[in-house]
Amino acid sequence: MLKHIKTLPGHQNPVYALAHSDQDELFFSAGNDKGIVEWSLAEMAFVKVKMPVQSSVYCLHYHKDQLFVGERSGAFSVYDLKEQKVIVRVNAHIKPIFDIQTVKSKNELLTTGEDGTVAVWSLNDFKEIYRFQTAYDTVRTIALSPDETEIAFGCKDQLIKIYNLQDYSLKQNLEGHKLPVTSLAYHPTGKYLISGSRDAQLKIWDIPNYELRETVPAHMFTIYDIAFHPSLPYFATCSQDKSIKLWDAENFKLYKILSLEKAGIGHTHSINKIIWSHDGKHLISTGDDRQIMVWEME
């Protein structure tokens, strides 16, 4: 199903963030280093350091030729890929930013992180539109429903909070995880929401009522990311336990474990982020071992 084809070295410190551009061969990585790195998937090679950063980067998000960079300082930067420069840097939060998402239908940008607030920004001028307190501690992750009517926030207080996207009103709290929620993803057709946690479990919440359908003991330690394949009925998870797992998106059967222990090649430390290439041919992973690994769908 998935096989390792390339390891890309170069980072000197743990890597926390990945994003790809509309040009499928280009993707970006960042973490505790001093800059954002651009890579070519076509060449399987380093391209260049794209921009310097003032503090560690915990998230990257791409939207319409712009790369959004969320920093430990609480600031976010916007790098314009056409102009090849940073066009704005905003001191958005008083604590680190852990996730950034765009709401295309509203032309809005959302930032959240360790201060528990969610800030809503205009994508036209990056001015703040609205801000609300989602939790009294860290909000780790954001997921938008495919139809952009609802948004889910994964919180350190073990709750998943569902909001209406139209007016950012709280719809409901989902209780189930026993430790902080660290990853969220909606099924591409909006059938369910899947959550991962420091409790190492995946939980499947049926939509529209968010009833708990299933609990899967997925990993040994924290699940840091969940990524659905762009066209096939699979999703991948990655964990602090140094493994990537490939699952059936219909019945949640485990298909493949990618790890040093199982496959003879893999990450040696926590895996913090995974993304699929747009065409679905490759999965890219990175983590605390400073390596970026490329896996190919067979």
From TrEMBL:
Protein keywords: Repeat, WD repeat
InterPro entries hit by this protein: WD40/YVTN_repeat-like_dom_sf, WD40_PAC1, WD40_repeat_CS, WD40_repeat_dom_sf, WD40_rpt, WDR55/POC1
Superkingdom assignment: Bacteria
Repeat positions for WD: 8-49, 90-131, 174-215, 216-257, 264-298
Gene3D superfamilies in the record: YVTN repeat-like/Quinoprotein amine dehydrogenase
This protein's name: WD domain-containing protein, G-beta repeat-containing protein
Organism, as annotated: Pedobacter suwonensis
